[in-house]
Design a protein that fits this description.
Elements: H1 9-13, H2 28-46, H3 48-51, H4 54-62, H5 78-164
Length: about 170
């Protein structure tokens, strides 16, 4: 084995790059990491400021040996999940109602279209009937005019005949 390798506890925790020796001066990155390690406790105490807990952050700065706050109890998400399941069920029910209403609206629309077609057919039939009635009315007017003219001529001839042959009648 290699004699230069000595697995001591101190050497096991510290790597050779962490120790600055006169032969190997610390690089800029190593110095920045060292400063960051020193600033981490201060940053941990200032983090509650980001949450809006100013009082907690000030107390952390004034009392550095204060134990960390106890962890929060686990959240019970069961009521939220139950509410979410209920909302989803209501959403499904509403969706089925909307589908049924859309179907009934389509049926009503089809019935209205059929009603409009029937109304158009009836209107067309009424127009045809009106035309036929006008035609019949003209025919009746012409026939009645002819009959009245023949009747008038008959009355005139009868009167003339009566006046001419009046002496033969008793």
């Amino acid at each position: 084995m290699n004699d230069s390798y000595n697995p001591t506890p101190a050497r096991a925790l510290v790597s050779s790059s962490d120790v600055a020796t006169p032969a190997h001066p610390a690089t800029g990155f190593e110095r920045a990491m060292g400063a960051l390690r020193m600033a981490i406790p201060l940053v941990q105490r200032l983090l509650p400021l980001l949450d809006g807990n100013v009082g907690s952050a000030v107390s952390n700065l004034l009392n550095p040996n204060q134990p960390p706050p106890p962890p929060l109890p686990p959240l019970n998400l069961e009521p939220i999940e139950d509410g979410l399941a209920e909302i989803q069920a209501e959403n499904r029910a509403l969706r089925t109602q909307v589908i049924e209403q859309n179907l009934s609206l389509k049926r009503i629309e089809e019935q209205l279209e059929m009603l409009a077609e029937a109304t158009d057919r009836i209107t067309f039939a009424q127009q045809a009937l009106r035309q036929e009635l006008k035609f019949v009315a003209r025919k009746v007017t012409i026939y009645s005019s002819i009959i009245l003219a023949v009747l008038a001529i008959f009355i005139i001839f009868s009167a003339l005949f009566f006046l001419r042959y009046r002496r033969f009648l008793p």
